[in-house]
Structure formats: C-alpha cells, structure tokens
What we know:
- This protein is an alpha/beta fold.
- It contains 20 helices and 16 strands.
- Helix 2 crosses helix 5 (121-142) and helix 4 runs antiparallel to helix 5.
- The chain is globular.
- Residues 293, 295, 334, 430, 451-454, 501-502 line the site of phosphoenolpyruvate (PEP).
Amino acid sequence: xxxxxxxxxxxxxxxxxxxxxxxxxxxxxxxxxxxxxxxxxxxxxxxxxxxxxxxxxxxxxxxxxxxxxxxxxxxxxxxxxxxxxxxxxxxxxxxxxxxxxxxxxxxxxxxxxxxxxxxxxxxxxxxxxxxxxxxxxxxxxxxxxxxxxxxxxxxxxxxxxxxxxxxxxxxxxxxxxxxxxxxxxxxxxxxxxxxxxxxxxxxxxxxxxxxxxxxxxxxxxxxxxxxxxxxxxxxxxxxxxxxxxxxxxxxxxxxxxxxxxxxxxxxxxxxxxxxxxxxxxxxxxxxxxxxxxxxxxxxxxxxxxxxxxxxxxxxxxxxxxxxxxxxxxxxxxxxxxxxxxxxxxxxxxxxxxxxxxxxxxxxxxxxxxxxxxxxxxxxxxxxxxxxxxxxxxxxxxxxxxxxxxxxxxxxxxxxxxxxxxxxxxxxxxxxxxxxxxxxxxxxxxxxxxxxxxxxxxxxxxxxxxxxxxxxxxxxxxxxxxxxxxxxxxxxxxxxxxxxxxxxxxxxxxxxxxxxxxxxxxxxxxxxxxxxxxxxxxxxxxxx
Length: 543
Ligand code: PEP
Ligand code: MG
C-alpha cells in the first residue's frame, strides 16, 4: 500500500480505480506508409467509432437539453458521411501514401479554410464543425478517448485541471479528483463540490507515477489521504465510513421541503450555484430554493466558437423554465484569468487574474456583451430572472452596463420581442474596491452577491490557483470577514438584499457568523444545500 497525503477540499470517501487525465497533443505530422489498405482500414474504424459516439451524444443531449442543442451532433454525423470530405482523405492516403492522421488533419484544415472563405454565414459556421469532426477522428485514431467506452467510474488524477478540461470530462464516470497541484478555490475543487464527490489537492508529484494508472485506490476526503492498493483493514474501515456517509445523506433528505429558518425564526434563502443546464437535476434533487449563481461562461467554454444568441437563449430558457417561479441569478460572462478560451484570442498576460477579464472584456467588446444580454432579456419571460455582473470595481462600470442594457431593451422593443420588466440587476462584490465602496454601489443596483473566492485572493494577495500558497491562505482571515460585514451593512442601509455565492458560503463553521451579519442568501453547490439547511435550523440567534 502507498499512502500519499494532500489537502482535502471536499469530504467523502471514494473507492475505485485510478485513471490519469490524458491530455496529450495529437501528432499529425506527415509520414510515408507502404500498406495503404491497412491505413484506409484504420481511418474507417476511427470514423465508424466517431459516428457511434456522435449518435450517443445526440441521444444524451436530446434528453438533457432538448432537440435544439442536440442537432449539432446530427449535423456532425452528416458531415462525417460527406462524400467529398471522405474522398479527400482516401485520395491522400492512397495517392500520396501518407498516414491517416496527416490526411485527416490536412483535409479538416482545407475544408475549414474553404468554408470560412465564403460570404455565407451558415457555411462560415461549418468551418468550426469540420475541425471538430476531424479532431474526433484524430482522437479515435490515436486512442485519446474523451468519450471513454469504459463504464467504470474512476478516481481522476492529474497535475491540475483547467475549467475547459473539467467540462470535457464525462461526469458520470468520475468518483473523485486527486491533483498534484490545485488550490481550494480552483475550479477542480468547485466542480468536486458541485458533483458531491471527494477531492484532494496539492498531493505533490509523487502522484504522477504512471505505474499507478489503473490501480485500486481510496480517496479519503476527510483527511486528504490517498491510499493506493490499500490493505484489507483500511479497505474495511473506509467502506464503513462510506456507508455512514450514505446514511447521513439519507437522513438529510428529510429536510427537503423544510424552510431555512433558525430556531428563533430568521429565514434566509439557500440557493444553488450551477455551470449549466446539466447541473439542474442536482439543484432539484437537493431542493434548492433558487439559483444564486449561474456561471454563464461555461456556455462559452463548452463551445468552439462564440455561442450564438439563440444557443444562449435556449440554455437560459431551459434553466428558467425548470426553476419555474424560483429566482435564477445569471452572472454574465466571466472569462479571462483561469478561464481561458482559444477563440477569444486574448493576449498572454503577466498577471491574468488582475488583467483583462470578466466585465472589462464585456465593456470593451460590447458586441459580445450585447449578444448575451439580448439572449438573457429574451429568456426573461420564461421565469424569474436576475442578472449580475462580475469583477466590478466602480460605479462608472455599473452606469455603463445600465446604458448598454437600455440599448438592448430598445432594440428588443423595436423588434417586438417581449421581455420581463422586473429583472433585478445586481453586482458581484469580489474585489476589495467593490466591498469598500459598497455604499456607493448599492443605490445603483437591486442586490449584491459576494464572491468570496476572488474577494479572498485579491484581499490577501494570494493567487487562488497557486498550490504553493495554500499554507499561507486563511479563508477565515479577519480582513475578508470585515469586508463581507461592510458589504452586508451597506446593502441593508440601501434596502437591497445581499448574498454570498463564493465557496465560503458553504463553510458550515461560518454559517452562524454570516447569519449574525445579516446575510439574506447563501448560494452553494447543490449537494451543500441540505447540510446548510440543517445547520441553519440548529442555530439560535437570540442566544
Ligand atoms: C467568486 O469569485 O467567489 C465567484 C463566485 O466567482 P468564480 O469562482 O467563478 O470566480
Ligand atoms: Mg469570481
């Protein structure tokens, strides 16, 4: 048995096989082959596998997100069957005697160039699709298998995972996360909390030994220990712990439908954080009273190009309809820093967390921002929508946002497109500047939502991505708590509500402190809703 110690970022026990996250770049360089028949056969097998995967993806998307979003996988299947596309690849293999990887990559590039050079918008959009289908064949040719065919759930091990990598994972097959780097507020940790699976970070390079791939292991998310090839007694002990977790979870189910009210009668909202439509099942399952943070940038991270107004509209509509009259707070695009997207073509920055990100990009590239606002306003008639803006540091930014909103509303009115008149507009308080001038910001908005993940990194000057700083990081630092208190006081002086949507909101050891400060809402990952409800119901603020 090998025991490696790291830092737990989400409790729980997982027992299963280790699977290293495979990212590797595919080698598409040109090599000369002699057996063209064999090469053609390789290509055909990879193509058939791709078609099968796309069929499955279509079915999955159809049940999870509806026909509109599923269509793309049908289009991809049709493109894969296209005669010209296939002929080009086969000709290259047969006539130039080159390897399939090169033939597929070259054909993909040629077709993409051809599609993007036309005047036709529809054809332009197909350029991304042809690259996507070629990538899929390449992955199947080289065995880099994102839609892994194994049905076994695994413990995913990696150095760290970026937000765009986490969305590629088939979540149904993940038992736990273990990373050699990582930090408590990184998106791997946030994802683990959302999925209610244990996660250990900062375990060091000892983890990355390839001989561990496929080995049985236990993740003990209570004390941050990874056991590889555990002994019988450890296995027995951990199975016992796992069972008591399951029992505890079952007993929390009794709190569904109960109010989030303290013994002395104070009620607050406990909402859920989501990254997209796929998280809704957990929101309903855990009886959240609303959605306090929809990280809309995941719609952009999931796409290969800017998601269209229609695509965004469908996602927002689906979330609003599912939540019926419950509040849904959508945070506008928060891209940059740790959430990088290739097609945004952002410059490399010395200091990305303090760089060109979130609302700064939206105010700078207003066409992107307006597309999102149009989609949101159009969707607003399907439920109880609130919109909030990330990384605010000044009143001037709010005024600019408001004037862009007016332009969008006028456009929609002219086009006779209906939208709700009572959409609440709020800002995230996640920079020290915003917290300190929250008295100036409050009169301009309907609510505040405190983003403690960024607020902590900026207040303490501790990069939330840097595992080396974990020992210096005190999430309960007095400076952070004071800024939260200041924000709550200033919100209430101006009669607006205030919530916490950063990870600190689910820290049960602070629930009583936040309630005493007067917070109106806590928005946490869905599996944390019932534990927080349980905590609130056992607090007596009169004491
Ligand atoms: C935060 O900063 O606390 C927050 C909720 O936003 P994100 O974690 O997505 O940056
Ligand atoms: Mg943030």
